[in-house]
Amino acid sequence: MPLNAVTSHAVSIQHHSIHYLERKGRTSDSPLLILFHGFPENAHAWEALINVLPSNYHIIAPDLPGYHQSESLPDSSDYQVPSLVTRMGEFVRTVSQGRKAILVGHDWGGAIAWPLAAFQPDLFLKLVIINAAHPSTFTQALKASSAQRKKSEYIKALAAEDAEIVLQQTDFAMLKDMLGTAMFESSGHKANEKSYGARLLRSWRNNQTLTAMLNYYREMPQMAPDEHAPDAELSRIHVPLLRVSLPTLVLWGRLDDAFDEGILNGLATYVPDLRIVYHDTATHWVHREQASWAAREITDFIT
Q: Per CATH, is 6-149+239-302 categorized as 3.30.1130.10?
């Protein structure tokens, strides 16, 4: 096996298998990074970043529970954020083997990483967030910003009872549009069976996996209100108080279709040891589009 090869593993957490990719570091004290992907991706979303991060970093990238090669959970309530945080905390504790890690989260992976870093900070040295909203500022933005409410309208389609049927009947057009259709143009060719687009499509076509992915949205604590929701409805939205004491780096692609940049306003109130770095031309998928830039920023933050 070549040095720094990415290998595939699985571990049982709370009696359910979590699959993960691993690239070992060169030494026993190499920095340990644990990467949580977002919707509708999987652990392979990180390959571009892994390839340009320093070769001495030890990297572990799981498929989130229910995604791709990780086992689906038995009940939809298992996809509620507190349950996911507990499960992924146990995963980190298991694979880190007593070492403190740098936790990196994007999108839904970030939605888990924020509270995991808040409630189990003993597991980590630092936190890196890539285009993932902090629960407190995101909820505040839903109350105050019609722009954010408009950007969050897609959530209702994914949480709908017939979401699986609609996605399958349209050959996952909504998910392809999210990620960029170019990724899927050659995914059906035999020579491209191992491409990331082909891996995603095979995963989405598994009914159990698709339902698991959608359950993350169905079990959200609060559904995003309509763009023009009345004040009475907005006043009932509860803003959680989530403080993160770890040194935190936020990398932000400014052309994000899912989040209005205003959700970063006031973030330092909840995350006092904070650094935010923007990329003017990156979208929500900055970890793949600008992997070298992200790797440089993460490396500077770690060292």
A: no
